[in-house]
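call fold target=3-methylmercaptopropionyl-CoA dehydrogenase
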Amino acid sequence: MPVYKAPVEDVMFLLNDVFPIERHNNLPGFADATPDVVEAILAEGAKLCEEVFTPLNLSGDQEGCTRNADGSVTTPKGFKDAYEAYASGGWMGLSVPEEFGGQGLPSVLNTIMQEFLSSSNLALAMYPGLTQGAIAALLVHGTEEQKRTYLPKMVEGAWTGTMNLTEPHCGTDLGLLKTKAVPNGDGSYAISGTKIFISAGEHDMAENIVHLVLARIEGAPQGTKGISLFVVPKFIVNDDGSLGDQNGVSCGSIEHKMGIHGNATCVMNYDGAKGWLVGQENRGLNAMFVMMNEARLAVGVQGLAQSEVAYQNAVAYAKDRLQGRSLTGPKFPDKVADPIIVHPDVRRTLLSIKSFNEAARALVVWTGLNSDIAHRSSDDAQRQTAEDYMGLMTPVVKGVLTDLGFDNAVKAQQMFGGHGYIEEWGMSQFVRDARIAMIYEGANGIQAMDLVGRKLGKDGGRAIMTFFNEVGAFCQENADDENLKGFVAPLQQGLGHLQQATMWFMQNAMAKPDNAGAGATDYMHLFGTVALGYMWAKIAKAAHAKKSQGNGVAEKMDAKLLTGRFFMERMMPETSVRLARISSGADVTMAMPMEAF
Ligand SMILES: Cc1cc2nc3c(=O)[nH]c(=O)nc-3n(C[C@H](O)[C@H](O)[C@H](O)COP(=O)(O)OP(=O)(O)OC[C@H]3O[C@@H](n4cnc5c(N)ncnc54)[C@H](O)[C@@H]3O)c2cc1C
């Protein structure tokens, strides 16, 4: 049975030492989040994940979801109870405003919990995860009545949420969307069409399911400019808040798929279902973007989460599995062989995962704090910078953390040799579960295009220039710090490559967009490597400062610093390869005749 221990201590180091949360006490909700309170909350969350969610991960994968003859869906044994434990613990509303039943705490805490939950049971964690995205969209774009009708029940966990974008002929290109909305004349609309791949579209864990659905109002323009967003409850909500008739929405089938078996992926049929407009007519994508941006960050976190849990199991196995002898002579002469963790290649593999995980977690926390600043700060300049970073980092977190999350799950599986390929060890599940994160919420190629095509040039390149300035200033300020010697120089070099790649796009992609398209994925990863390197430099600075605290902290910080040095030596050099690929342009890629593929 796979194991999992939530990395609470690492998170507390990030929140106390690397990005001190106390500095943000002026933001609403932060004053209540003292270090003690945060630690107590995360410890409680860790317990839920380790003791309730984790034990259901393997069994949920094996059992999967079942669609019954009446169209209802039964989730794997134990999921309903585990969801109830989550809901009754108040986790859904951790960072939702108090007026809707939430606790109003910093959303970064929720993001951290998403890592723990997704590591322990990704399929199960997706049910509340989607609900939180729907809550966010209704909070921003819902009418007062919609908020009053849906939010308290969703925050309580009694009702869950979904997002309905995809149709059989339209995934990435939402402009092709056909689902239609016809005004009923009473303020509601009749929604008709078929949505596919809808996560948590139908299940047995909640009294009601609140679908957020993209559809085209009759007569609206074609393309993305004619799409509107609707709230379509499974059961119509009566004026007194009780549940009325079943709406015209049903689950036609569920998908049999590679991973996340415990999460119901549904074909949803809308047959004149009653829906109500959310936000403005024809501005549905804009409204859905709130949910999509939330979801993209959450999906990036899923990549990290699978990498972390796979790593923990690989380490346990590598310390236990006896094969061969160390290259420098037996390390455990009393045993028949040494544990495989003595072998340099095994250590290389484990350290490449570990050094990613710890920096990726820092990037998630940093981005999460920026999200809080963007949503809660009253200082215009501070808010603008945070919003800029959010825009820039969302595709990077989504694309890079999920690509590497999957790679790392495979690497961790490799540590088990043939046993990793056998289902009972659980490593195969981590690989299968991690794979979807690269695809949904905008496939990673699309994230890369979003970064290069939209985010780089936005507002005259303000966001990317702010990032360059921040990292450049850090390098300059710490250039002479002996403690950071192995960190600043490689970071500076990586930053230089990122700046060159950005300049190359400016000079070569404006007139020839294929150059941007062909280099986008490499650029996203180049950016990600620099961002992770920056995280390591900041972690290293904090770790050196903390070393003097005594009480065994020094050993832990030394291990951190070694992990960081591994990243700087082994991962940062990738920036030069990425730059070379980007600046080779698109000519060869595009020269290939279609029939020659
Ligand atoms: C398990 C699962 C759960 C899901 N959950 C949900 C959900 O809850 N709600 C929902 O609405 N959807 C959901 N989806 C759908 C998912 O978001 C889509 O599958 C995804 O957006 C890609 O769309 P597509 O499958 O139609 O691929 P396509 O759009 O056909 O893309 C195919 C490939 O072409 C590439 N491509 C397409 N256009 C371009 C371009 N312009 N430039 C470069 N490359 C391009 C893509 O990157 C991709 O690799 C889910 C899917 C799965 C499998």
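return ok
The chain has a mean pLDDT of 96. The pocket of flavin-adenine dinucleotide is lined by residues 163-166, 171-172, 197-199, 257, 265, 436, 439-443, 445-446, 449 (CB under 6 Å).
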